[in-house]
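Can't paste images in this forum, so I'm doing it all in text. The chain is below; anyone willing to post the predicted structure tokens underneath?
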Amino acid sequence: MSGGTFTRPKVPEGKAQYLTTTQKEIVPGQFHVGYTTTWEPWHKEVPYQTPKKP
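Text version of the structure:
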């Protein structure tokens, strides 16, 4: 690309069952745009309870 400016297209947010991917802000002069990946928890945390004694 000689002399022209190249703009990267905005990518829509990607959603899966436990995953969301969003595009980071485009920085002029930077080759790689980058993405942010957010995972949703799929395990429940239950507070520990001491087992009953026999």
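Strands lie at 14-15, 19-23, 35-39. The mean pLDDT is 82.
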